[in-house]
Amino acid sequence: MSNRMVIVIVLLSGQLLLTGCVSFAETPGERFRQAIKEIEAACAKRKLDPNEVCGGVAKLKPADPLATEEGRFAHSIKIPNPVPEDSGYKSGMTPEQYFDHLCKTEAGEFIFKTVENVEGVIQLRPRVKANYEHSHLYALEDPFGFEASKGFYVSPSGYKSYEIPAVASETQELKYTRYFGYDGRSIETLRSIPDSHRKSRYGYTWRGVIRPHDRENGIGGGEVIVVDLETNEVLAVHRGYAQYKMDERVGPLNAGWRKRCPPIQPTGGPYGHFILKVLKPGIATLPTTGGNNATK
Prior knowledge:
alpha+beta
């Protein structure tokens, strides 16, 4: 870990008593910004070939959570267990201590109601495929989360259909893409059709956890929120945190979000099994009251 060295001079009645150096550990945010400056300076000195991109990670901008309609909707949702404005960060905490604190006090599954016999689910806010963003401290709004494969949700043991908003279509009327038919063995059996309307009553969206001390200490959080789209009721929340690690010898070129809590299961990504636990697949969409079934 890099350190800043500050010369300390102690005077008493005008007489020099002590000189020395005090070391203050740099934050991941400070080290990242310094590394970006070095990349930009190195690129500025080079004569680039035609169409050559130098320092792609340095050209990225911080994510804008409210840039899309889907993002604004996600951040407008009021959940039963919002993260506190005071995250519990204390001056002098190391990034590791702060990460462990958030994992113990805020991360986990929080289920308020489950639903039986769900035929289909809609992913309300698609994630943009990332490239250099994984190496950037601020470019990903939610560095914890990523999506499971469509085949995970649409299979003989899963839902009959899985819907997502259409990213682009020749006509604005076709707002959704519906996936279905996967036999659990050959991905070629997975089919899709565009539609102007969604069929799913239940869906989930995601958003980043954004607070002053998190990203500066190399920590990024995200929430997945399961909702009943007919009643706007929040059924469950999954909250996770990731820790950013950077090799100072190569800077962001070999950096990334290395550590996560809760841990990711071998299948289903960070929260696929959580969604199946809340919205239980079945032959019909029949809501049931799960009571106060909060779990963590």
